Amino acid sequence: METPAAALEVIGWREWLALPALGIAAIKAKVDTGARSSSLHVNGLEEFLRDGQTWLRFSIASGRKSQRIETACEALALDRRAVTDSSGHIAERWFIRTDLVLAGQRWSTEINLTDRRTMLFPMLLGRSAIQARFCVDPARSYVCGRLRKPLTP
């Protein structure tokens, strides 16, 4: 049974969120109900084996352009899948599962890793990550404010 929209917390079309297991206390995300999966811009993506499992090593740039911080990250590879972008191009992308914090809620979600350097937002938050949790008001922005305190992994 679906949760009625009136019972869901409202978020805007863009929000600040955190990825605590990756060491990211605050990152801007575009909320996109037209996208099934969430995407995160990463630099230097490389795969490696650890204990017989595929892991991914990458970095995430966060902060203002004048104060960019590169955070080195490692995550267990969940899967590699074909993703169709907004232009209709299909590409294979790595997926990870990690915790996400938004509007005081913390949950585990799948995120694909890609190059979003030409996009305005380093992260796209897709509908599978927010379904049954939030209702999106496209006329509002940053409803939840910016996360201020560091979160524990």
What would your notes on this structure say?
This is ATP-dependent zinc protease. Residues 10-144 form the Retropepsin-like aspartic endopeptidase domain. It comes from Pseudolysobacter antarcticus. The protein has one helix spanning 127-130, and strands at residues 9-12, 14-19, 24-32, 38-41, 43-50, 53-62, 69-76, 79-84, 90-102, 105-114, 123-126, 134-137. With 153 residues, the protein is mainly β. It has a domain at 5-41 and 79-137: Cathepsin D, subunit A, domain 1 (Beta Barrel), CATH 2.40.70.10. It has a 7-stranded mixed sheet with strand order 2-3-11-4-10-9-8. A 3-stranded antiparallel sheet has the order 5-6-7, with no helix packed on it. Strand 9 (90-102) and strand 10 form a beta hairpin.
Structural class: mainly beta
CATH architecture of the domain at 5-41 and 79-137: Beta Barrel
Number of helices: 1
Strand order of the largest sheet: 2-3-11-4-10-9-8
- Classified in CATH, the superfamily of the domain at 5-41 and 79-137 is Acid Proteases
Shape: globular
Residue windows where pLDDT falls under 50 for at least 5 positions = none
Q: Beta fraction of the residues?
A: over 45%
By CATH reckoning, the class of the domain at 5-41 and 79-137 would read: Mainly Beta
Report on the biggest sheet.
7 strands, mixed
The helix content, as a percent range, equals under 10%
Protein name: ATP-dependent zinc protease
InterPro entries: Asp_endopeptidase, Peptidase_aspartic_dom_sf
GO molecular function: peptidase activity
Domain Retropepsin-like aspartic endopeptidase: 10-144
